[in-house]
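note to self: dont lose this again. the chain is below, predicted strucutre after it. 301 aa total, dont forget to put it in the shared folder this time
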Amino acid sequence: MSQHNHNHTTSNTQNFNKAFAIGIILNSIYIVVEVVYGLIINSMALLADAGHNFSDVLGLMLAWGAAYLAKTAATEKRTYGLRKSTILAALFNAIILMIAVGAITIEAIRKLIYPDPVQGQTIMIVAGIGFIINAITALLFIKGRKKDLNIKGAFLHMAADAGVSLGVVAAGFIIYSTGWLWVDPAISLIIVLVITIGTWGLLKDSFRLSVDAVPKEIDLKQVEKYLESIDGVKEVHDLHVWAMSTTEIALTAHLVIPGETKNDFFLKEICGELQNKFGIVHSTIQIEKSAQNATCEHHNV
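---
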């Protein structure tokens, strides 16, 4: 006897289509501005940042596409639909950010060794525009960053860009005031450190979810303790908890209940408690009279 709970009301609590569209449009326009002024004043810093921003637009498009795919219906071949694509998008976003960090580091070290003459005032103006655009875009995703790892990836992308742009503004001001060309790469390396610290968490969390590890917000011992505390339950086994998407957590468990037969309301109540206590929205509970007779272990022949 088993029960499935398919309550997905907690997923996709907010539609970020408008945020993705605005972010992609604003950042695409800014890339053109950076390339034009980078070529005019012969600034490798602006051209390199334009390339970095291009990777961010790709990241936003990736996250948006995954958010859309996650809403597609299940099929005979994909019984969970494409919910997992949000986890993969978060993972790819983290990888893209780390690659961008590596590119910025290499360019910064090169500029420390071979400083390039730059126009500090122009850099300040263009980078200032970039800071405003990236900050606005990041704010569009700030509400969803704690509940959805895919949205968190988009937020970190834009917040990191805002930080980079602000650092470039500061560097431009110092260069304009003092002529110290080493300031530009030095500030870039500091920003790289900050981005790496923030991205490492995203990379670690998204990788964990992609290999079906228990989500970090779930205490498996507490889940097991709750199931064992249910009246009539003598044993809990084959307990698995994993993420179906960046917003949905699933669970399967076998409960050994000798004696009386439980009805569907009993199972529905358990599923409701798992959602209320732990945020698990997709639960499959199997009731067994004896663990020895009903276990689902696989044996090699």
